[in-house]
Write a structure and sequence with these properties.
The chain has about 350 residues and is of the alpha/beta class. The protein folds into 2 domains: about 70 residues; about 270 residues, Peptidase S8/S53 domain (Rossmann fold), CATH 3.40.50. About 45% of the residues lie in helices and about 15% in strands. It contains 11 helices and 9 strands. The strands form 2 sheets. Strands 2-3-1-4-5-6-7 form a 7-stranded parallel beta sheet, sandwiched between helices. The protein is globular and about 85 Å long. The N terminus is likely disordered.
Length: about 350
């Protein structure tokens, strides 16, 4: 019944309520509490009150069921339930370059994880002892476990561990991670990390991946600095800044004085996610451009999936960027209406 409510929206609610009323009437008639030929005014009043009470309880239950995945401010802002009517990211694969993923969470996600690689020791062990990678995966791709809802709950996932358990990485690890992803079926790369050191090899690898049609998003940085972190500073990478509930840029977010076109702003303050603590999977709330990057990656998956299914082709990078940039403080659903009308093919 919950699936009916979620699938058909308000119509599902009406169907549910009508079914409840029919069940009440049938029960009363079956028990001879409501004989058809012997109605009395008092009996009618009691029956009506009983039905109203039953319906009221039903409405309360429906409200809880249909609103629990919009309990977070950013899900409400993005009109999450409406977004999922357009897409859940089914055809997309998001690769996460991060600290890995909790083995416990990986088991819950099951066959949605289609690739795992540890660049630190060249193995398949991607267990996350830091917690950051698990957070990013749950924000972008969570399926509702522990009340954490990801933006693209049906997207496939590739885990690339390139951050040590102490939270350290470098451009050599980043390059190796990108090379692995380049040979996978990833359509989106989430890089919720960055640094101040430039790497020409990383630049060339990212340019090649963009030519392959892979969309790369990276965190702007959390240092209140006037320079974006690398690789978010590249024009071939969509840099993601964080905004709060009021749509204001997060005070610790890095900015840029350059005229960079590929930069977007997405929710990144007080974001609910899953993380690791003492080898246990727990819920947490955190802020940063890492979080906004994961949300933007999930949203990009919805757009790319919807466009591909509707138009039977891949969306162009410039058009994807245009749609993602137009959403700040506006309707996130509007992009899908624009895709419907798109005639540029």
């Amino acid at each position: 019944m919950i699936e009916i409510i979620n699938k058909y929206g308000i119509y599902g609610k009406y169907i549910f309520l009508i079914c409840m009323i029919i069940c009440v009437i049938f029960f009363l008639k079956k028990k001879s509490i409501m004989p058809i030929n012997n109605f009395k005014p008092l009996s009618i009043i009691i029956i009506i009150l009983g039905i109203l009470l039953f319906v009221g309880v039903g409405i309360a239950v429906i409200t809880i069921v249909t609103s629990n995945n919009e309990s977070n401010w950013y899900l409400k802002k993005m009109n999450y339930n409406q977004l999922l009517k357009y897409s859940k990211g089914d055809s997309q694969t998001i690769a996460f370059i991060d600290s890995g993923i909790s083995d416990a969470y990986a088991k819950k996600l099951g066959d949605r994880i289609v690739g795992k690689y540890n660049v630190l020791d060249d193995s398949g062990n991607t267990n996350d002892y830091n917690g950051h990678g698990t957070e990013m995966v749950s924000i972008a791709c969570g399926d509702g476990y522990n009340e954490v809802y990801g933006i693209a709950p049906k997207a496939k996932i590739i885990i690339v561990k390139a951050i040590s358990d102490e939270g350290l990485t470098n451009n050599d690890y980043l390059l190796k991670a990108l090379q692995y992803i380049s040979n996978s079926k990833a359509t989106i790369v989430n890089i919720s990390l960055g640094g101040m050191n430039y790497s020409e090899q990383v630049v060339k690898q990212i340019a090649e991946m963009q030519r392959q049609g892979i969309t790369i998003l990276a965190a702007a940085g959390d240092y209140d600095n006037k320079d974006l972190l690398f690789p978010a500073s590249l024009e071939t990478v969509i840099a993601v800044q964080s905004i709060n509930e009021k749509g204001i840029l997060w005070e610790e977010c890095n900015i840029t004085m350059d005229k960079k076109e590929s930069i977007v702003k997405y929710p990144g303050v007080d974001i609910e996610s899953l993380t690791v603590e003492n080898d246990k999977l727990i819920s947490t709330i955190s802020s940063g451009t890492s979080q906004s990057t994961a949300i933007a990656s999930g949203y990009a998956a919805l757009i790319k999936d919807y466009y591909k299914k509707l138009h039977k082709s891949e969306i162009e990078y410039d058009y994807l960027l245009e749609l993602m940039k137009n959403n700040t403080n506006k309707s996130y659903v509007k992009s899908f209406d624009l895709i419907k009308k798109d005639n540029r093919r």
